[in-house]
Automatic annotation (TrEMBL):
Entries under Pfam families matching the protein: EAL (PF00563), HDOD (PF08668)
Entry superkingdom: Bacteria
Domain EAL stretches: 1-202
Name of protein: EAL domain-containing protein
Location of the HDOD domain: 197-382
InterPro entries the UniProt entry points to: dGMP_Pdiesterase_EAL/HD-GYP, EAL_dom, EAL_sf, HDOD, RNase_Y/CdgJ
Length: 402
């Protein structure tokens, strides 16, 4: 079974919810050769078995419903303020469906029309919809200006799907779109002038380089950290959190208490947070999810000796977007193993299948995810379990350093 989530942002690039996408792992290109009813049932069951908060945190879930499953009581297992009911674009519309939609709305649930391609003025379900989702690949912005204006006059919330560039995001925002879905926030803005973060980057690189040595020195690490009061403060906070309030008398004590593996994990996380201050928090969260997920995938591939490198590769996979540079420029000067450089820059090498699989899973490209997982002899059910673990771990880390 595959279940992934895709963030949905407001116009400030703050996450307001996640669309949950499902596939069981069989051969069909769309859901899985079974009905969309069974697909939705599996998503809802997965939410309860895995824990709602683990998957969508304190946000709301956007879940697909067809004209059959909308009539079950399953959707009412989720509170109205946590669920957006997405009606699929190919639903069969009849009086039974419209009556049910009225009932669902009266219970407080919001309804979204998914992949909307119909005429706004003529489509029968418009009056029941709170949110209208336009796929920008299927319906380019220029082709829907009039309909979008009508929807806004009727106080509908308009959501742009498959927004892949900042330019698309800005154009959609200017047109009046309020919600956005896509991976535009993961792309570097290379053409724009970014803030010089070279000084901070150098400090982090020095620590990472020391940690990569066969015998890292706590004395050298202490010296580097003590040169940066902000970094020192954040290390002390991290250790104090773990020690449960016990006193920490020095930076060296703090570093020793954490241990080399924990230091490396935290320095990578702090690097992403500090360098990405002007970026959406979701970008950092994705890097953490990728870090954990990549390590798990490497382990299942029989690359136990490379799980640490796979984790670092996943963590650094958004560094180009954080620094607004090409990946090659972003990684320049960092002493990294060739396996990481090859995967992130050249898209080849022993860790590249790990990178490919976690990206396919993240974007719910189920065909690619299934193909790669089969080639790597990885059970998709294990992938889903590891993905949930990665989500929980990322949420915990963000909470601790928030």
């Amino acid at each position: 079974m595959f279940i992934a989530r895709q963030p949905i942002f407001n116009n400030k690039i703050e996450v307001i919810g996640y669309e949950l996408l499902y596939r069981s792992g069989s051969q069909s290109k769309e859901y899985d050769g079974i009905s969309s009813e069974a697909s939705t049932a599996s998503v809802i069951n997965g939410l309860f078995e895995s824990g709602l908060d683990s998957i969508i945190e304190d946000k709301c879930a956007f879940i697909n419903f067809d004209e059959k499953f909308i009539h079950t009581d399953a959707l009412e297992l989720i509170d109205p303020d946590r669920l957006i009911v997405e009606m699929l674009e190919d639903v069969i519309i009849d009086a039974l469906l419209t009556d049910r939609l009225k009932e669902v709305r009266n219970k407080g649930y919001r309804i979204a029309l998914d992949d909307f391609r119909e005429s706004y003025s003529d489509y029968p379900l418009i009056e029941y919809a709170d949110i209208i989702k336009y796929d920008l690949m299927a319906t380019p912005l220029k082709s829907i200006v009039k309909d979008v204006n009508k929807a806004l006059l009727n106080n509908k919330i308009i959501l742009a799907e498959k927004v892949e560039t900042e330019e698309e995001f800005l154009k959609a925002k200017e047109m009046g779109f309020q919600l956005f879905q896509g991976y535009f926030f993961c792309k570097p803005h290379i053409a724009s002038k970014s803030i010089d973060k070279s000084a901070s980057k150098v400090q982090y690189i020095r620590i990472i380089a020391e940690l990569k040595k066969k015998e890292p020195s706590f004395e050298i690490l202490t010296g580097i950290v003590e040169q940066d009061v902000t970094l020192a403060y954040r290390f002390l906070r991290a250790v104090s959190f773990r020690k449960g309030g016990n006193l920490v008398y020095s930076i060296k004590t703090a570093l020793t208490y954490m241990g080399l593996n924990e230091i490396e994990r935290w320095i990578n996380i702090l690097m992403l947070q500090d360098l990405g201050q002007s970026k959406p928090e979701e970008l950092m969260k994705i890097s953490l999810i990728r870090s954990s997920f990549s390590a798990s995938i490497a382990g299942h591939m029989g690359l136990e000796s490379l799980t640490h490198e796979a984790s670092l590769m996943g963590l650094l996979s958004v560094l180009d977007a954080i620094l607004d540079q090409t990946m090659e420029a972003a990684l320049e000067g960092i002493a990294l193993p060739n396996s990481i450089l090859e995967a992130l820059i050249d898209h080849k090498g022993v860790l590249f299948p790990v990178y490919e699989l976690q990206i396919a899973y993240e974007k719910a490209d189920w065909q690619a995810a299934e193909k790669i997982s089969k080639e790597l002899n990885i059970d998709e059910n294990i992938l889903f379990e590891d993905y949930l673990i990665a989500l929980e771990w990322a949420n915990d880390i963000v909470a601790q350093i928030g």
